[in-house]
Amino acid sequence: MGELAKWELKIEDLSKVSRLAGESIFKELKRISAERSNTKRIERLNRVFPLLEQFKLEPILYQSQNLYFEISREEDVETLSNKPEWIKQFKLLGENLGVKV
Q1: Buried b (16+ CB within 10 A) or exposed e, 86-95
Q2: Buried b (16+ CB within 10 A) or exposed e, 17-56
Q3: Pairwise CA distance, residues 45 & 51, whole Å
Q4: Domain-by-domain residue ranges, the chain?
Q5: pTM (predicted TM-score)
Q6: Among candidates 62, 80, 84, which has minimal Cα distance to 72?
Q7: 59: left (phi over 0), alpha (psi -120 to 50) or beta
Q8: What is the pLDDT of residue 96?
Q9: Mean pLDDT by 10 residues, the chain (101 residues)
Q10: Exposed (0-12), middle (13-18) or buried (19+): which is 66, by Cβ within 10 Å?
Q11: pLDDT score of 45
Q12: Can you give the pLDDT at residue 76?
């Protein structure tokens, strides 16, 4: 994305890039689900959303939203309450995905 901005390039097929972005977000969220205590992974994912907005990409997020909701309802998330940074990043991810929990 940085290179696109630097060289003032345009994305020709916004729908394809948006679809691929949505798939990538879902894959990353599945990884987050597997490694619940990895704050860095959530932080990296949260950094993607401003870039998507900058390039006016609208990924399809329903799978990610459903998975986020499932993760938020699981008991292990409550055990991470002693990790305030993880909780903060996880809540921000929910906001980025448009999920209200």
Answers
A1: beebbeebbe
A2: bbeebbeebbebbeebeeebeebebbeebbebbeebeeee
A3: 11
A4: 2-97
A5: 0.84
A6: 80
A7: beta
A8: 96
A9: 73 87 96 87 95 89 95 73 82 94 68
A10: middle
A11: 96
A12: 67
Q: Is the dihedral of CA 63, 69, 70, 72 positive or negative?
A: positive
In sequence order, what are the residues at sequence separation of 6 or more whose Cβ sits closer than 8 angstroms to the Cβ of residue 10? Answer: 4
DSSP state of 71: H
Angle at the Cα of 35 from the Cα atoms of 32 and 39, rounded to 5 degrees: 70
Tokens of 13: 């097929």
Two tokens, residue 1 = 């994305």
Assigned token pair, 67: 């998975």
